[in-house]
Amino acid sequence: xxxxxxxxxxxxxxxxxxxxxxxxxxxxxxxxxxxxxxxxxxxxxxxxxxxxxxxxxxxxxxxxxxxxxxxxxxxxxxxxxxxxxxxxxxxxxxxxxxxx
Length: 100
Fold this sequence. Notes:
Blueprint: H1 13-28, H2 31-36, H3 43-46, H4 49-63, H5 74-77, H6 80-91
Protein backbone atom coordinates (compact mmCIF):
# COMPACT_ATOMS: atom_id res chain seq x y z
CA UNK A 1 0.00 0.00 0.00
CA UNK A 2 1.20 3.53 -0.68
CA UNK A 3 2.94 4.99 2.33
CA UNK A 4 2.04 8.45 3.61
CA UNK A 5 4.54 11.11 2.73
CA UNK A 6 6.74 12.80 5.27
CA UNK A 7 5.30 15.97 6.77
CA UNK A 8 8.67 17.73 6.40
CA UNK A 9 7.83 19.40 3.08
CA UNK A 10 5.04 19.66 0.57
CA UNK A 11 5.15 16.95 -2.08
CA UNK A 12 5.78 18.03 -5.64
CA UNK A 13 3.04 17.55 -8.20
CA UNK A 14 4.81 14.53 -9.78
CA UNK A 15 5.28 12.95 -6.33
CA UNK A 16 1.63 13.54 -5.48
CA UNK A 17 0.49 12.12 -8.81
CA UNK A 18 2.71 9.04 -8.32
CA UNK A 19 1.32 8.49 -4.80
CA UNK A 20 -2.32 8.78 -5.94
CA UNK A 21 -1.71 6.52 -8.94
CA UNK A 22 -0.02 3.92 -6.76
CA UNK A 23 -2.88 4.02 -4.26
CA UNK A 24 -5.50 3.56 -7.00
CA UNK A 25 -3.62 0.76 -8.74
CA UNK A 26 -2.78 -1.14 -5.55
CA UNK A 27 -6.19 -0.69 -3.95
CA UNK A 28 -8.70 -1.03 -6.76
CA UNK A 29 -7.38 -2.28 -10.10
CA UNK A 30 -6.66 -5.73 -11.41
CA UNK A 31 -3.24 -6.30 -12.99
CA UNK A 32 -4.83 -6.13 -16.46
CA UNK A 33 -6.57 -2.83 -15.63
CA UNK A 34 -3.37 -1.42 -14.14
CA UNK A 35 -1.46 -2.07 -17.38
CA UNK A 36 -3.68 0.28 -19.38
CA UNK A 37 -4.54 2.77 -16.63
CA UNK A 38 -3.55 6.37 -17.40
CA UNK A 39 -3.39 9.30 -14.97
CA UNK A 40 -6.06 11.17 -16.91
CA UNK A 41 -8.51 8.23 -17.03
CA UNK A 42 -11.93 9.10 -15.58
CA UNK A 43 -11.92 7.61 -12.07
CA UNK A 44 -15.66 8.18 -11.76
CA UNK A 45 -16.19 5.71 -14.61
CA UNK A 46 -13.76 3.16 -13.12
CA UNK A 47 -14.43 3.36 -9.37
CA UNK A 48 -17.56 3.51 -7.26
CA UNK A 49 -18.28 6.37 -4.86
CA UNK A 50 -16.99 4.49 -1.80
CA UNK A 51 -13.69 3.83 -3.52
CA UNK A 52 -13.35 7.52 -4.33
CA UNK A 53 -14.03 8.34 -0.67
CA UNK A 54 -11.33 5.83 0.33
CA UNK A 55 -8.89 7.83 -1.80
CA UNK A 56 -9.93 11.03 0.00
CA UNK A 57 -9.58 9.39 3.43
CA UNK A 58 -6.10 8.16 2.50
CA UNK A 59 -4.81 11.39 0.99
CA UNK A 60 -5.96 13.70 3.79
CA UNK A 61 -3.37 12.50 6.33
CA UNK A 62 -0.77 11.67 3.65
CA UNK A 63 -0.71 15.25 2.37
CA UNK A 64 -2.06 17.18 5.35
CA UNK A 65 -5.13 18.44 3.51
CA UNK A 66 -8.78 18.44 4.47
CA UNK A 67 -11.31 17.87 1.69
CA UNK A 68 -14.63 19.59 2.35
CA UNK A 69 -17.96 18.20 1.21
CA UNK A 70 -18.24 20.97 -1.39
CA UNK A 71 -14.88 19.88 -2.84
CA UNK A 72 -15.99 16.29 -3.56
CA UNK A 73 -16.43 17.04 -7.25
CA UNK A 74 -15.38 15.52 -10.57
CA UNK A 75 -13.23 18.60 -11.19
CA UNK A 76 -11.19 17.80 -8.08
CA UNK A 77 -11.42 14.00 -7.92
CA UNK A 78 -12.12 12.86 -11.49
CA UNK A 79 -8.67 11.51 -12.32
CA UNK A 80 -5.26 10.92 -10.79
CA UNK A 81 -4.04 14.10 -12.48
CA UNK A 82 -6.97 16.15 -11.14
CA UNK A 83 -6.53 14.81 -7.61
CA UNK A 84 -2.82 15.66 -7.70
CA UNK A 85 -3.52 19.17 -8.99
CA UNK A 86 -6.20 19.67 -6.32
CA UNK A 87 -3.86 18.52 -3.53
CA UNK A 88 -1.03 20.68 -4.92
CA UNK A 89 -3.36 23.67 -4.99
CA UNK A 90 -4.40 23.05 -1.40
CA UNK A 91 -0.77 22.74 -0.35
CA UNK A 92 0.05 26.01 -2.08
CA UNK A 93 2.39 24.60 -4.73
CA UNK A 94 2.39 26.15 -8.16
CA UNK A 95 3.55 23.21 -10.29
CA UNK A 96 1.58 22.62 -13.48
CA UNK A 97 -0.20 19.26 -13.79
CA UNK A 98 2.07 16.52 -15.14
CA UNK A 99 -0.69 15.27 -17.44
CA UNK A 100 -4.03 16.64 -18.54
